[in-house]
Specification:
Layout (H helix, E strand, L loop, with lengths): L1 H27 L9 E6 L2 E10 L2 H6 L11 E11 L2 E2 L8 E6 L5 E8 L7 E2 L5 E8 L2 H5 L6 E3 L13
Parallel strand pairs: 2-3
Antiparallel strand pairs: 1-2, 1-9, 3-8, 4-7, 5-6, 5-8
Length: 167
């Protein structure tokens, strides 16, 4: 029995190494990148997805949705900033009503400005929180869908250690 027990231990050790080796190979295989032209918001209402144009540099953020005369219902613009900061937007040269969803670094919605008025140059504040992004969608849509403060937006620009995301 001693010899068969030894053989069994060697067999189990060999299988363990085989699976560990397969895991190492799988870990080295890169996952496909998450799409950057789509966001998903989840909350008590369920899930909503939007096709987005990302404004991640100064020129694109400055232009935003200015002079756009219509926005498809399932579309928006995602403004992304490299570091957390206080945020304020306005509607200069913006021709359509917008909802602005202000986001922290984990993609949590911290403030929603409902129905920003076209062409209004009054500053629209994201509140007292340091933020890293804003999603602009059609005016009134956040309320219609049931999107609320505390809901979470998923996009590769926003990382949450508490809720890892596999796109």
């Amino acid at each position: 029995m001693g010899n068969s027990d030894h053989n069994r231990r060697q067999f189990i050790a060999g299988i363990t190494l085989l699976f560990a080796g397969a895991g190492a190979v799988a870990a080295k295989t890169p996952l496909p990148p998450c799409p950057t032209d789509r966001v998903t918001i989840t909350g008590g209402f369920g899930t909503a997805s939007f096709n987005v144009e990302v404004a991640a540099d100064e020129a694109n953020r400055a232009r935003g949705l200015m002079n756009v005369d219509e926005l498809p219902l399932s579309s928006g613009m995602l403004f992304v900033y490299q570091r957390p900061q206080l945020m304020s937007f306005w509607m200069r040269n913006t021709l359509i009503e917008l909802d602005m969803l202000f986001l922290d670094g984990s993609g949590v919605i911290r403030h929603i400005h409902d129905r920003a008025q076209p062409l209004d140059e009054t500053p629209i504040s994201g509140g007292p929180d340091l933020l890293t992004g804003v999603l602009e969608i059609n005016g009134g849509l956040a309320r219609r869908l049931g999107i609320k403060v505390g809901d979470v937006l998923r996009h590769p620009a926003f990382i949450s250690a508490a809720e890892p995301w596999n796109c």
